[in-house]
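Late entry, written up from scratch paper. The run itself happened at the end of the previous shift, but nothing got recorded in the book at the time, so transcribing now.
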Amino acid sequence: MKVFHFGLDKRQVDLLFSPLRTKVDVIRLLMNTIKIMLVGDKLPTERTAGMLTLRVSSMNRLIFSAVDKIFSISFPFTTLQQEDCLRFESDYCDDIDHRITSEILALVNSRHYTDFTDIFGFADAVIEAGEDHEDLWGLVRELMMFEDNYLRYDHDPIRADGKRHPLHHLDISYTSSGTFKLGLAGRVTPEVFVDILDVESDCHFLDTKCGDFR
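Output as recorded:
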C-alpha cells in the first residue's frame, strides 16, 4: 500500500469541498484534485486548512478531510511515483497532466456536456477538445462511467434535528434520488473513517439496537 498526503489551503478546501450533486461535479473534483497532486506543494502548518490523501492499495481512494467534514471517492487512475512527483495514467491516456485536466474541465463546464438533447453539439465539443489528444474520448467515457463510491462524514450542528438529521452522520451517495444518512453516536476521526472503507481491515459493525459503530 502507498499513501500520499497533500496539505490544502483555505482556497483549495473551498474548491474541493463544494457540494457534489452530479457526476459532472465528481469529474471536476477529480481534475482539480489531480492538479493539486501534480504540483505537490508543501504547505506550512499555519496555512493548512485541510488534508488530501491518496491511498493506493486494494482500495484506490481519495480522502478529503477538514474541520468536521471527511469524504471519499474512488480514484479511477493508475498512480506512478517518479522521484519526488506523481504521474497518473489510465487505459485511455498515458499521462493525465495539467493540460489534459484543463481540457476536461473546459469540456465539462461547457453547456454541450450537460445538454444531451444536443448530441451533435456534444460530439463537436469532444472532437474539438480532443484535437491534440486523439484518445480524449476514451478518457471522457471512462470518467462518465466509473463508479465513484462516495461516502461522507458530517458533524452538522447547524442543521441537526434529532434522529431525522443527526449531529454526527454518514452520507451515503450524493444524488437526490439515492442519498441517505446513517446516524452515528459520536464523532468519527479521519483514521476511523479510512478504516471503515479499508477492505483489508476488520469490518465495523452496526448495532441495530442503538445504531453505534463498534
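Strands lie at 2-8, 50-56, 61-66, 69-74, 78-82, 85-89, 151-155, 168-172, 180-183.
(Scratch paper discarded after transcription.)
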